[in-house]
Specification:
Keywords: Transferase. This is CoA-transferase. There is one protein chain. This protein has two domains: 274 residues, Crotonobetainyl-coa:carnitine coa-transferase, domain 1 (Rossmann fold, 3-Layer(aba) Sandwich); 82 residues, formyl-coa transferase, domain 3 (2-Layer Sandwich), CATH 3.30.1540. Helix content is 37%, strand content 16%. The strands form four sheets. The chain has a six-stranded parallel beta sheet with strand order 5-2-1-6-7-8, with helices on both faces. The protein has a three-stranded antiparallel beta sheet with strand order 9-10-11, with helices on one face. Helix 6 crosses helix 7.
């Protein structure tokens, strides 16, 4: 049985993370993704290491872990799109694809005749998704956009990190490139919606997706906290602006996360923590009142939490149905029995590394399960296959393209 997107062909002109994350998501679900790369260089992330995948002798391969994280299940075709011959190959591919994905700067592909208007003339049903920092219009449209700077400009860093008055308090970025990841997921969702429309009407369309737009959208409750009050929320460290207690607390040997989401859970927590009287105190009996009095409540909880070790607290709190958890390092994450049970880490055959690990797509389909993933491709690994089978070029034509440096 094929994946849910078997038969969908994606021409992926993107590189680095946001675009490749979108196309990897589509590939996981069965789409054929043809990744276009620069001859001799490829996607920038191939060299974003260490660490790199190791060969059988323990030596570094040319595949950085960063690249491996976002390019599973694709075919790599090297094409010099700056040359007319390369542009012609891309146009031939676009005529036989359902989707084009790119993250060039605004207008960057128009000079090559590879923009939406040009490719739509060849294939009116094409779904063409452009990812940029700031979108195709507006005063910032020509600026480059990178995850770190967008986290700052889009407000995420203003609500992430410890308050200024705390030791070391300063704005902080998230530990992974969440704007790129979310943009990739929004791109995949948008592409599938446009494909659904294309299948119903025969009409393709253009998708304009901006990192800043995505960052603003995923402010979620924090964005609405501002819009409903006119007051910009600040940094609370690990605390939650709308729920108390909902943060990290020190224990006798480390830290634990308490995520008390309602008044019943708070009452249960107080009972097992030996602070029953707080649940009946009018200052703390409801979440509204706990948020208003967090400055007096949180120190009282801290005093109780430091009396036991983290694992002891988890055993007690889970029995009382109080949401909690440890702050795991990644070695503990991947050794977690639940993570193992969910088959989160898989190993894929690789031409030079033997096997490379991958973190599986988390979507669990009942009818079209994600299966038969392939390792991220070596640079140009599928060039001749794609040109021969999809573009229908002869061996002589492929040899000529190689001779003049197009592939």
């Amino acid at each position: 049985m094929g994946g849910a997107l078997t038969g969908l062909r994606v021409l992926d002109l993107s590189r680095v993370l946001a675009g490749p994350w979108a196309s990897q998501t589509l590939a996981d679900m069965g789409a054929e993704v043809i990744k276009i790369e620069r001859p001799g260089a490829g996607d920038d992330t191939r060299g974003w290491g260490p660490p790199y995948a190791k060969d059988s002798a323990g030596n570094d391969t040319s595949e950085a872990a960063y690249y491996l994280s976002a390019n599973r299940g694709k075919k790599s075709l090297t094409i010099d799109i700056t040359k007319p011959e390369g542009q012609d190959v891309i146009r031939q591919l676009a005529a036989k694809c359902d989707v084009v994905l790119e993250n060039f700067k605004v207008g960057g592909l128009a000079k090559y005749g590879l923009d939406y208007t040009s490719l739509c003339a060849i294939n009116p049903g094409i779904v063409y998704c452009s990812i940029t920092g700031f979108g195709q219009d507006g005063p910032y449209k020509d600026r480059p956009g990178y995850d770190f700077m967008i986290q700052a400009m889009g407000g995420l860093m203003s609500v992430t990190g410890a308050p200024d008055q705390d030791t070391g308090g300063q704005p902080m970025k998230v530990g992974v490139a969440v704007v790129d990841i979310f943009t990739g997921l929004y791109a995949a969702v948008g592409i599938l919606a446009a494909v659904r429309h294309r299948d119903a009407t025969g009409e393709g369309q253009y998708i304009d997706l901006a990192l800043l737009d995505v960052q603003t959208a995923i402010l979620a409750n924090q964005g609405m906290n501002f819009l409903t009050t006119g007051k910009a929320p600040g940094r609370l460290g690990n605390a939650h602006p709308n729920i108390v207690p909902y943060e990290a607390f020190p224990t006798a040997d480390g830290y634990i996360i308490l995520a008390v989401g309602n008044d019943s859970q708070f009452k249960s927590f107080c009972a097992v923590a030996g602070i029953d009287h707080l649940a009946d105190d009018e200052r703390y009996a409801t979440n509204r009142s706990r948020v208003a009095h967090r400055e007096t409540l949180v120190p009282l909880i801290r005093q109780a939490m430091v009396m036991k070790a983290t694992d002891d607290w988890i055993a007690i709190l889970e029995t009382a149905n109080v949401p909690c958890g440890p702050i795991n390092t990644l070695d503990r994450v991947f050794d977690n029995p639940q993570v193992k049970h969910r088959d989160t880490v898989r190993y894929l055959d690789h031409p030079t590394a033997g096997k490379v690990p991958t973190v599986a797509n988390p979507i669990k389909f009942s009818k079209t399960p994600i299966m038969d993933e392939t390792a991220p491709p070596m640079l140009g690994q599928h060039s001749e296959e794609v040109l021969r089978e999809t573009v229908k070029l002869s061996d002589e034509q492929i040899a000529q393209l190689r001779a003049i440096g197009i592939i």
